[in-house]
Amino acid sequence: MNRGAGAVPFTAAVTGLGVVSAAGLGVKETWHAALHGTVGRIVRPVSWQGLPHDFFYAVPHFDADVLLGRRLTRQMDRFSQLAVVAVREALADAGLEPEAWDASRVAVLIGSSHGGVDIYDAQNAVMREKGDRRVSPMLAPLTLLNAAAASVCLDTGALGPSMGVASACASGTAAIGYGRMLLQAGLADIVIAGGAESMQSRALCASCVRARVVSLRGDEPQRALRPFDSGRDGMATGEGAGIVVMERPEHAAARRVPVRALVAGFGATNDAHSPAVPHPDGRGIEAALRNALADAGLGPEDIGLVNAHGTSSVANDLVEGTVLHRVLGDGVPVFGTKPVTGHTLGASGAIETALTVLALNEQCVPPTANLEQQDPAITIDVVHGKARPCHAKAAVKTSLGFGGHNAALVLTAP
């Protein structure tokens, strides 16, 4: 979104965060792991046995029946379950109680890359083995890309605009940006925005192997994800959910609640180049980043830290690193957290936005785990080894996705 000359920037107040990831069941656990560069829980799905890439980042201690109750659990696919748990944490963090709010003024936007894809595999097996009449009548509503947003509305009673946002791996970041636009337009007072994903489909994993986008370091999965490293050879997927509660500033002020950060700028573009790889000159992500800065009324010199998409793929990291250097220079500390959480696809941008907010709050940049020797062709300042203190008043979060989708956010300290 670009502003006209002299326009006053609109900022959305971030009042709550919720995260469910392979690094932990909650914001504190995930942040602690990010600060220490601790790789999250990795499992080898039985259904992936025999594939060249056979490991997956999985949320630890996640018992949906215990966390949500068996009745509610049966109404949701796993990605929706993850979203609802993260939303509950974010609302508690924001001090919001659904019983007390004006539900018609609460919007919900949850991004996802694949939605409830895993249940398709399971139900296809049921159909082959037991026939059409044994297919679940809930297959359609459970697998919709908007299912997580619908589940959150059912759980909270939110009655405002709600939607699933589908921009591949940029979905979570885009959901937050579009949620801010709803606040700016006066269409909501509170927005619950983020992303959720849980994709353990053998067919999709096999496809990623064929496309050469996943790491083949199956003998050392803990060291497989290595953003910006010379030895990177691809991503490793995982499940998770990240949620940001945003409010109109006057609404948060009236509630007298702490504001964690401000969403000050947003940019979204498409490369129109390839279904699987970014444009080699990075024109799409560069435009998104420059648009986000312009939307926030800030210049490159105002940015004190960056959370990069950092997938550990050869082409993606090179393009993103080149663009960050071209736009922001080489003096801004950059960090990537996918080695900690796994690449959670449509949830990744939202989880990483929450971690970027915490980096601003703590004035500390987490290290990029597994970075041993930075690719000499990537000249940005990637923090590694240990966390680094900073003095940042503004931060950038970038995301790139299959299909050429790009999104960038500018976050500022309150």
List the uncertain runs: none
What's the CATH topology label?
Peroxisomal Thiolase, Chain A, domain 1
Distance between the termini: 21 Å
- Percent helix: 25-40%
How would you name the CATH homologous superfamily? Answer: Thiolase/Chalcone synthase
Silhouette: globular
CATH class: Alpha Beta
The order of strands across the largest sheet is 5-4-6-7-1-8-15-14-9-10-12
Mean pLDDT reading: 96
Structural class: alpha/beta
**Multimerization state:** single chain
Strand count, sense and barrel status of the largest sheet are: 11 strands, mixed
Explain what the structure shows.
This protein is an alpha/beta fold. It has a single domain (12-412), classed as Thiolase/Chalcone synthase (Peroxisomal Thiolase, Chain A, domain 1). Helix content is 35%, strand content 19%. The chain has helices at 27-36, 64-68, 70-73, 78-94, 117-130, 139-143, 147-156, 171-184, 202-210, 249-255, 283-296, 314-328, 338-341, 348-362, and strands spanning 12-20, 42-43, 56-57, 106-111, 162-165, 190-197, 240-247, 261-270, 305-307, 333-335, 364-365, 381-382, 388-389, 394-401, 405-412. The strands form 3 sheets. Strands 5-4-6-7-1-8-15-14-9-10-12 form an 11-stranded mixed sheet, sandwiched between helices. A two-stranded antiparallel ribbon has the order 2-3. Helix 4 (78-94) crosses helix 7 (147-156), helix 8 packs across helix 14 and helix 11 (283-296) packs parallel to helix 12 (314-328). The longest helix is centred in the N-terminal third of the chain and has 17 residues, at 78-94.
